[in-house]
Description:
Layout: H1 2-12, H2 17-28, E1 63-66, E2 69-72, H3 86-94, H4 107-120, H5 131-145, H6 153-167, H7 176-192, H8 196-216, H9 228-248, H10 251-273, H11 295-304, E3 317-320, E4 325-328, E5 335-339, E6 359-363, E7 366-369, H12 381-387, E8 395-397, E9 405-406, E10 410-411, E11 417-424, E12 428-435, E13 446-454, E14 457-465, E15 471-476, E16 482-487, E17 490-494, E18 500-506, E19 508-521, E20 524-535, E21 539-545
Antiparallel strand pairs: 1-2, 3-4, 4-5, 5-6, 6-7, 8-15, 9-10, 11-12, 12-13, 13-14, 14-21, 15-20, 16-17, 17-18, 18-21, 19-20
Helix pairs in contact: 3-5, 5-6, 5-7, 6-7, 6-8, 7-8, 7-9, 9-10, 9-11, 10-11
Amino acid sequence: MISKAKKIFHTVKYLQFKQICFRVYYRFKRPSVKELGSGSIPVQEWTWSSPVYNRQSLFDDNKIRFLSAEACSRSSHIWNDHSFEKLWLYNLHYFDDLNSIDCSNRADLQKAFIQRWIEENPACKGVGWEPYPISLRIVNWVKWMSKQKDVNSLWIQSLIQQADALSQQLEYHILGNHLFANAKALVFIGCFLNSAASERFLKLGLRLLDREVPEQFLKDGGHFELSPMYHQIVLWDLLDLICLAEICQNDELLERSMEWRTIAEGALHWLATMSHPDGEISFFNDSTFGVAPKNHIIQQYAKKLGIERKNVQRKYAVHLVDSGYISLANNASDKLIVDVGTVGPNYQPGHAHADTLSFELSLFNKRVFVNSGISEYGTGKERQFQRSTSAHNTVVVDDKDSSEVWAGFRVARRALTKNIELKNEENSKLIFAEHDGYMRLPGKVIHRRSWDYSENELIVKDNVSGNFTKCSAHFLLHPEVSIVELKNNELLLRVNDSKKITATFYNVKYILIEKAYWYPSFGVSMVTNRIVVEFESSEVISKFRW
């Protein structure tokens, strides 16, 4: 009980005052909306056009599929069936199928599903009326309806009703990407409808964006929650807003569009820096595949809008100072990405992991060392482990996490990184950093780590000062990397049929090869191996040669 109270205290103390106030306010105040009307409401005459990335999720046989899980949609209770994960139910209410690959082939199915949603989800009741699913659904409905010849007036009335409910429960208690999604939805419906209500929604959405865009995009281009996956999501949102300005020619959006374009350029550079030679994102904090649009689709979208990434010339050492990441490369087929930053914005670390001083490495265009990724949300043991220090390529002291991640989306005491150095020499690149996340333990441990990276070698030095009972460095292998043999303190790893890596460890008590899992998407786990190197004294040296 005392331990949990401490976690709550060290979590709440970082929150903004308005987050606490709105959390209490929304607990007692529920949104109230008017009944659906019968009159027609005019809409603006523009047609949405943009690249799509969502896969089909609605099927003719009443089958629906989200996050690698299928269900039958016949029952009217499915909308709030809590035998499904909360995130699965959220996806059910998003209506992503309306703007998915080959979506025009399913018009009748989509119309029936919209009608069902209206009939089976009474106003302000159930999962579908929470602000985040409302936000994504409004955008999907508006994009889809703009392309239809005839739109049922009831659907327009429902859109207004949903936007009204959203405006009464904006996610000030969460902030971050949720509030950005709220603002985007209000702008979309404000530009789609032609009524007094639409003007109110548009002004509210733009007022939010004027504050959130400069707040959420850092100077180095990264999204401030420091998750490559959420960076993709919010960058796509920004491109949608730029596209909307071009399509509907709204003066207020066009005024802001130039600033948004400049931010998008920096965000594209950040995304490229934080991605591997295989063209996909690294797995720091809440990141996995299959949720956000892939990099190449984002790049296509940006190019369609006339936006190119900044610093297009290839740099082999990039320090994203504001985000706290460093990316090193010797050529186009290898890359080392290192986390020397914080857990994210103090008031919104919900997607943060205890991964301080972790890293990922690609060689020969293949991922070698990877962070775990994620396969679920919620408060289960799997979610807790995926956020833990043990699931990342860094040092674990006395089986504790470097930052106190808990309850699915909470962080109490956090590791702070200090003394960061980057030396880019002609024949090697050296990174040094330390963190104080284990200073809360009785032994007052400081973890110091360096990466010495050259053309055919990576040397990782870990030093821990203070007292500890057990200390180990973890290295999670990609599932396609196999361990050929273990001899004394040396491992032979095979990346493919012809490429091998020799891993040698110094000053170790023992080396353990554990069965582990890599989580490349929601609902998916792949068996792999984790190398656990236990310290004999205060320092361990891990040398990888290829």
